[in-house]
Task: structure prediction
Amino acid sequence: MTQAVFTGARFFGVNLSGLDLRNFELMGADLSWSNLSKTRLAGVNLESGFHDRSDFRQANLEEINLQSCKLFYADFSGAILRRAKLRKAQLLNAKLCRAALPSADLSDASLAESDLSGADLKGASLRGANLMNARFKGTDLREADLTNATLIGSDFGNADLRGADLSGAQLGERGKIISLGDLDTRLNPTQFKGARFDEKTLLPFDRKESKLRGMVLVERKNR
Result:
């Protein structure tokens, strides 16, 4: 099938739910406020586009290119984003609950205030990402790269951090709350209560601190 080219096109507020758009070129397009739930966009190039408040729920976005896109308040709940390219994407207040993001590239992305609870981020790269006040409750972060990420106010309650690398990450100080009045933002301490880790996990603090933060060490079973 011939590729349909819509580079830089404006599709503001359109309903594309359930359509197969895998042969579309949409680099720089504007899909803000649009319904793309259950849409097939696997491998499509939407780099540098504007997709604020768009609905991508349960869409097939495997290997999609969303690098440098603006995705404020976008909803990716239950979407498939395996090996997706999201480097430098702006995902402030986005919903990625139960989304499948194994091996996705979210390096240098901004996910402040976003909800990734229950998502699959195994082997994903979040290197240098802004994760301030992001929620990772029950999230699978096994072997994920969170080096030099900003984790102030993030909640990793009951997350799986086995084999993850958090070296150099910036954390909120335990027991300290920062209030940014001008931005109406409250930065709580980084939460790790119930988060699992193992001997391969690289944490930005020692084992004693991990215990004080309520983390659970998963011991390797002897064979």
Notes: The longest strand covers residues 178-180. Helices lie at 207-212.
